[in-house]
Design brief:
The chain has ten helices and no strands. The protein is globular. The protein has one domain. It is an all-alpha fold. The longest helix is centred in the first third of the chain and has 32 residues. The protein is about 75% helix and about 0% strand.
């Protein structure tokens, strides 16, 4: 039980860093500029729910779909690790928005209260989706705890982050967000190496210790 709890916490932290809701606060504030408090709160809730649903769909439907294409779990882990590493480098260099495939200007231009592109692909993007697909294996009902709970927790964290950001408004300074983003990038780089190592051991069992 303790190992499941530890794995759940680890996956939750990793997925939170991959989604990066803190770094997307400026995008949220720009999209909701002119919204009143209830509208901002409702949009924040929509974003959190959309992120959770997208990640759950990838978790339970992603690997079966890839199986039809003949792609193995090890390949997903290695490929996901490469994507995560690229995202980590982009975060450290302050180029995360460019890496995620949508420039801030284009995202800011949307005045519709829709979850796209903020929820998908900016939050539930390639890195987060590949991570949940690469860690979706479960053998017993107890394993579902560390598969599902991190996704629900990150969805709730996205909602809470944007809800609080909407209340704080312009009090959140960009330099503070930049520091958080770069520290997260360093942590993410280590996680990416671990993902690729696990995938390589799956693809090449002779690399496993012992």
């Amino acid at each position: 039980m303790l190992s499941i709890l530890a794995l759940t916490v680890k996956k939750t932290i990793t997925l939170f860093v991959l989604a990066g809701p803190v770094s997307m606060v400026p995008v949220f504030l720009a999209i909701t500029e002119g919204f009143d408090a209830p509208e901002q709160a409702r949009f924040a809730r929509t974003i959190g729910l959309s992120v959770a649903l997208a990640l759950l769909a990838a978790t339970f439907l992603g690997m079966p779909f890839l199986g039809v294409l003949g792609v193995s779990l090890g390949a997903v882990q290695v490929g996901g690790g490469v994507i995560v590493l690229l995202l980590a480098i982009a975060m450290v260099l302050g180029q995360e928005s460019t890496f995620k495939g949508s420039s801030p200007a284009r995202a800011y231009g949307s005045r519709e209260a829709a979850p796209v592109p903020l929820a998908v692909p900016l939050l539930a993007g390639p890195a987060a989706l590949s991570y949940v697909m690469g860690n979706s294996a479960w053998q017993s009902p107890a394993d579902l705890v560390h598969v599902v709970v991190p996704i629900l927790a990150v969805g709730a964290a996205c909602w809470a982050t944007f809800h609080l950001a909407g209340q704080a408004g312009k009090k959140i300074r960009q330099p503070t967000l930049d520091v958080v983003q770069r520290v997260g990038g360093l942590i993410l780089a280590a996680i990416a190496v671990e993902m690729m190592a696990a995938g390589l051991r799956t693809l090449f069992p002779m690399l496993a210790p012992g």
